[in-house]
Amino acid sequence: MLGRRWLAALLILMSAVPRAIGARQQEACAAAMPANIDAGVFRRDVAALLQRSDTFRAQCERLAESPRVRVKIGIAFELDGGRAQTMIHRFPSGAITADVVILFGENYRELIAHEFEHVLEQVDGVDLRHEAAVGRAWLLAGGMFETRRAIETGIQVSRESESLHARAAAGAHAHATR
Fold first, then answer.
1. 29, 20, 176, 168 alpha-carbon torsion, rounded to 10°
2. Is the pTM here over 0.90, yes or no?
């Protein structure tokens, strides 16, 4: 009888430990998410990028250091020309809000980093017309700009995220087949 109680207590404890560890990991990811970023439905993607990509972590650190910047990420089922876009609003006080919209079904992680870089371009005061004049940006239909800087950053973050994910998956597969 006493043995069964100990066994039951041990089983309860064993099932609670993984849940507690998972909860701590989620809390750590949430704590790393800057308060001025509302990731919405992309919260898990942002958390994964924070864990897997040094470049994305640096982007988020820079955004966190800019308390007058607010970023909100949303999803759309249709966008006029493109896979993502960010509408930047500047206020006379110097505050900036950025509404990032990602097209459903796209490479969310690459595009989130790409759009965050557009926000950082605004924080840095990049003159997009000058960037276009020297070939580092392009004026698109509708008056929006695309920049080489954002394209390269999105690709870099995607590579960092995928390579770490692939190494982790390969390690788990090798461990499982032993």
1. 10
2. no
